[in-house]
Please model this.
Amino acid sequence: QVQLVESGGGLVQDGGSLRLSCAASGRTFSTYAMAWFRQTPGKEREFVATISWTGVSTYYADSVKGRFTLSRDNAKNTLYLQMNSLKPEDTAVYYCAARRSYYDSIQYDYPYWGQGTQVTVSS
Model:
């Protein structure tokens, strides 16, 4: 089992940048595929990006491709999401998630979730 804690959210202006972090407990972080999802009130949770165990493979939602970069440091048990060129429509609570299997974009495949961190992009 793994426990996840997100940080790095905040308020930023349109066009700005933020870096989210997700710290994982335990010594088996490198065996988990990881992902970020986001959610706004009244909407279903939306896939953002996912990364393989080793960090070699990544996959992004079209809405963030070219602006967001997902990476991981297995030695530090930490997942990162670098978000550049932020837009007001990126405003959401961002959640990191883990699964002990192949990386994918389906939220229901992820059994482990953090508590979320708020990102607000002002216009």
In short: The chain has a mean pLDDT of 96. Residues 73 and 79 are 6 Å apart (CA to CA).
